[in-house]
Amino acid sequence: xxxxxxxxxxxxxxxxxxxxxxxxxxxxxxxxxxxxxxxxxxxxxxxxxxxxxxxxxxxxxxxxxxxxxxxxxxxxxxxxxxxxxxxxxxxxxxxxxxxxxxxxxxxxxxxxxxxxxxxxxxxxxxxxxxxxxxxxxxxxxxxxxxxxxxxxxxxxxxxxxxxxxxxxxxxxxxxxxxxxxxxxxxxxxxxxxxxxxxxxxxxxxxxxxxxxxxxxxxxxxxxxxxxxxxxxxxxxxxxxxxxxxxxxxxxxxxxxxxxxxxxxxxxxxxxxxxxxxxxxxxxxxxxxxxxxxxxxxxxxxxxxxxxxxxxxxxxxxxxxxxxxxxxxxxxxxxxxxxxxxxxxxxxxxxxxxxxxxxxxxxxxxxxxxxxxxxxxxxxxxxxxxxxxxxxxxxxxxxxxxxxxxxxxxxxxxxxxxxxxxxxxxxxxxxxxxxxxxxxxxxxxxxxxxxxxxxxxxxxxxxxxxxxxxxxxxxxxxxxxxxxxxxxxxxxxxxxx
Length: 496
Ligand code: BES
Ligand code: MN
Ligand code: ZN
Known about the structure:
Blueprint: E1 2-7, E2 15-20, H1 28-31, H2 38-43, E3 55-58, E4 66-71, H3 82-96, E5 101-105, H4 107-110, H5 119-133, E6 152-158, H6 161-185, H7 193-206, E7 210-216, H8 218-222, H9 226-232, E8 240-246, E9 258-268, H10 288-304, E10 310-319, E11 331-333, E12 339-341, H11 349-364, E13 368-373, H12 377-383, E14 388-391, H13 395-408, E15 412-414, H14 419-424, E16 432-433, H15 442-451, E17 460-464, E18 470-471, E19 481-482, H16 487-495
Parallel strand pairs: 1-6, 2-4, 2-5, 5-6, 9-10, 9-13, 12-16, 13-17, 14-15
Antiparallel strand pairs: 3-4, 7-8, 8-10, 11-12, 14-17, 18-19
Helix pairs in contact: 3-5, 5-6, 6-10, 9-11, 10-16, 11-15, 13-16
The structure holds ligand BES, manganese (II) ion (MN) and zinc ion.
Ligand BES binds next to helix 12.
């Protein structure tokens, strides 16, 4: 929608955006910005309801070319998070009108709320909405697509200083999400395991606080990364562990590293337990856990800049088929000694995550671990695309994740661990199976499996994003396609 969005242009803007609450008149501060009474006039039109996300446009005879009156919804219970969707609505309207510069002046309306509104949080949500709706990914269009509507540039500024600072941060966070979305969108014949490693190396070159190391081939054997080796062995694109590291200029005293583990399956055919019917289509997005982690690392290095080390482990492989494929009945011995009987090669994500969790526990000595994965179809059945499944029995970490979720608007819903679920995973041959013979509690089986690879005492969260990593229709700040879910949540997690 926009080729770029920048903050802080000097000079007059083409468009002005002001706010109006539901059932309310325009506030005095906003009226002062009205060049000729046309904004007041527009705010009294019957369609100027102030409903959240509604837009009424005034065309003054002087000053701004157009003034957009944004409906802010009910004044009571106003939540700055609602400006994320509003940012999407405004972005669409500005793009449709081919506006290249806009000033946002919601402070007048927001100032009428009794309890002071956090202007920075408001600006951030709007920046995220604008940035997310601005995402364009047209590099896979060819000569048969007309490029008549090439995306334009947009510069935005805000009347309020804190709002402007938030806007900038929000746009930076959205850039992380958009990197995740572009990687998600990249087809599996291009986004191979090697390509993913190259993208991470490229990212590390952009920031002097980021470093990248790729573990592959014989080194995987030496490091006993049994899941990656086996899941990836049928593909001509060899598996790898991509380790990104953010090292701040100065580490806060006593701050332990945080580790993110991302399932990065460049394609999930199911392997020998092949996906049937329509089940395979879209499995290029089985790398979206890893993509979210990469997007988070971008946001962390560019805008969040926490005073603690953050390590990203991207478990990268293609789950394919050949005579060398791993098979149902194989028994794998993991780095921590746990043995796994493979019962279904389509439950591959947990096998590569197991390696990442083992590595995180013994090599990184982390303060806490978060893994992100498009792990199960079951979580889509349970929660749809409204919430990601979240498993975390550590109260302090769970509170932090919930807070980051609230700030980013990337919703999570708590799911349970229980010893009975671990019992479901017992194997008649090895320690555990990768998929139980029963359909019961499918997404929880995944979490129960993973729990065998996290050392006691290390706080850990598992996020199953199979329902939230993409949406199937346009709406709010997203267009149909990948959402980058997790990138902003993880970045906020280390921010607070
Ligand atoms: N990548 C899939 C899960 C998935 C499903 C992601 C739909 C996005 C949308 C995962 O590897 C998988 O195949 N899971 C199986 C697990 C089963 C074989 C135990 C599933 O959910 O059916
Ligand atoms: Mn699978
Ligand atoms: Zn998968």
